[in-house]
Design goal:
The chain is α+β, with helices and mostly antiparallel strands and 338 residues long. It contains five helices and 18 strands. The strands form three sheets. The chain has an eight-stranded mixed β-sheet with strand order 4-5-6-3-15-18-17-16. An eight-stranded mixed β-sheet has the order 8-9-10-7-11-14-13-12, with helices on one face. Strands 1-2 form a two-stranded antiparallel sheet. The chain is globular and about 50 Å long. It binds zinc ion. The site of zinc ion (ZN) has 5 residues, from strand 3 and strand 15.
Length: 338
């Protein structure tokens, strides 16, 4: 799979250096999901299901801390590229984080051209302050924050053909189609853009200090923006910050191959983790942002019928013996119906 065209050395996040080959063949398909640490579970459901109209496609627990929920939101099927996921960490001793360099600082969802007036009104109705943004790369957008301070944008895109999850009080023509992109903040653009290019993310446009990259043909769900600010303080993980962005890869075999290639270049990569709905590897790009590469399968219907997605607490098989204890300690929640 390795196509040796040229090599260059770049610093890794620990300040060392490794050599890698440009043009390596890595079949990244686009974004898979974005995961954040938020404060309150009910606030999160109220925003994501109640206001934004996303489908709760899985209610489970953090596989690394089973007393904390893990909510997955997305389209009808929980299609990779539509998925936003949260860990509501209220009352678990996690500090409030600081958004900064080395993080995903904004998560963007794609909505149809002409739907921003609807979204301004809907956000206002739910007492969420929204700000109109100047056109970026030709698209208008509205920005808002959640209760824990996470920053979001709804981008009006004329080119998103994905079918939205349909709920009663949102016209399908206005509903969220899925992730549009994420915005990373880094201090130094060179190493980050070179590393991303190796994964298939090619620079396609620039505006000011913002560089737009695209993979697999680009378009909504296949975009990452990098904003470059040498003065920006490093972000600190905690409530109100994005933990990582995951990219989609088709098969476990391709994932193993990519892991081997990264390891061969000196990148620190985790072992392959079983997340039940996909398998994952994690590593940091040179600017410090945590990347995950996740498989397309088996998907969210692996442990419950698609019509019932998200309605019951699902646990990985190794946590089932702890179910009673887990259920006793999780906060009560109500999934909003509107
Ligand atoms: Zn993830």
């Amino acid at each position: 799979m390795l196509m040796r065209t040229s090599t260059m050395a770049i610093a890794n996040h620990n300040g060392g250096s490794f050599r890698y080959d440009r043009g390596m063949m890595v079949p990244i398909l686009g974004l898979h999901h974005v995961t954040a640490t938020v404060d309150d579970a009910q606030d999160d459901l109220d925003l994501c299901v109640g206001t934004l109209g996303l489908r709760l496609v899985k209610t489970t627990v953090n596989f690394d801390n089973h007393h904390v929920y893990h909510f997955y939101y997305g389209d009808k099927h929980g299609t990779p590229g539509t998925i936003w996921t949260t860990f509501p960490y209220r009352d678990h001793g996690v500090r409030v984080g600081t958004r900064g360099a080395g993080q995903v600082v904004t998560t963007l969802f794609s909505v149809s051209h002409g739907s921003l007036a609807f979204w301004r009104a809907r956000l206002a109705h739910d007492s969420i302050a929204a700000t109109d943004l100047p056109d970026r790369f030709g698209d208008a957008a509205v920005a808002f924050s959640d209760a824990s301070g996470l920053e979001f944008e709804l981008v009006a895109s004329a080119q998103d053909e994905r079918l939205p999850w349909v709920v009663e009080d949102i016209d399908p023509s206005a509903a969220i189609r899925g992730l549009h992109s994420v915005t990373l903040a880094v201090r130094d653009e060179g190493p980050t853009l070179a590393f991303m290019a190796q994964l298939g993310w090619q620079e396609i446009a620039r505006e000011g200090n913002r560089v737009r990259t695209a993979v697999n043909g680009g378009g909504p769900g296949r975009l990452i923006d990098v904003i470059v600010d040498p003065q920006r303080p490093q972000g600190i993980n905690g409530l109100g910050t994005v933990h990582h962005v995951a990219m989609a890869i088709e098969t476990g075999e391709q994932q193993r191959e990519l892991r081997d290639q990264l390891l061969a270049q000196g990148v620190k990569v985790t072992d392959i983790r079983d997340r039940c709905y996909f398998t994952s590897i994690y590593f940091r790009e040179p600017g410090g942002v945590l990347f995950e590469v996740a498989t397309m399968k088996p998907g969210f219907a692996v442990d419950e019928n698609e019509s019932m997605l998200g309605t019951a607490l699902k646990l990985p098989p190794w946590e089932e013996p702890n179910r009673a204890d887990i259920e006793r300690h999780l906060p009560d929640i109500v999934v909003p119906r509107r």
